[in-house]
Fold ATP-dependent DNA ligase clustered with Ku protein, LigD.
Amino acid sequence: MDDVNLNITNPDKLYWPESGYTKYDMLDYYIKMSDIILPYLLDRPESLHRHPNGINGQSFYQKDHEHLPNWIETHAIHSKSSKKEINYLLCQKEATLLYLNNLGCIELHPWHSTIFHLDNPDYAIIDLDPSDNNTFEQVIETALAVKEVLQQAGIDGYCKTSGASGMHIYLPMGGKYTYEEARDFTKLLCYYTQEKLPKLTTMERMLKKRGPKIYLDYLQNRKGQTIVAPYSLRPQLNATVSMPLHWSEVKSGLKITDYTIETVPNIMAKRKDLFKGVLGQSIDMGKAIEQLNNL
């Protein structure tokens, strides 16, 4: 590990009491997975979601940092709402990742853009958010409908489980477009998806009006908004992971609980990272819209 002095506290504390996993188990997972996870954190402001007493304890969010070890990098960003500079932490190396874990950060929440082009995301996201009345089989059906729309648009999308109840589909933007352009484009894709599954999906933001449908959420595409990183653990029963998948794996029978603190390091020891393309070359939004208009 990086040559820094990192003091780990309470490694035996139960973080997932029902499953028996401890803070040590979490640290062990992130040590095994750090080389795979760090590219998705590098140079991105990090919004901390801390669970210092495990998944059943109180949690809280933290963005601003005043007292950090001198080896941890930060980046100041002006906040219009609070009218001050927010000192965001940057997770640039394994030691910083473990520092976050030690603070109780079970899951990781990087910005969609880096400090080099904060107004232009590297990817856009369609978040498939089911109601309590939806099954995961219906989430799978919806993800495959999104895939059909992407194929019609002639673009690649990358999918992962949320690690909770839904799925996330990422589209490479490469810092080429603004957040507003990314949002409007994903909104268009969601309209096409809803046309395919009108009885199962909704774009209604208000919970009371959604009903028992899967929400096609394009509003994750905002500056400063975060979503759980690829391969991140979740503060959920069974210590599930937000797991990137082959599209061929998105089929009936897929379960969120197939990917956990125990199974994912073994899976990744045998296969390459499927999500690398998310950080690669941007889609051509204009060309994609033209193809959709020609349907």
User: Anything to note?
Assistant: The helical segments are 23-37, 94-102, 136-153, 179-196, 207-210, 263-268, 285-293. The longest helix spans residues 136-153.
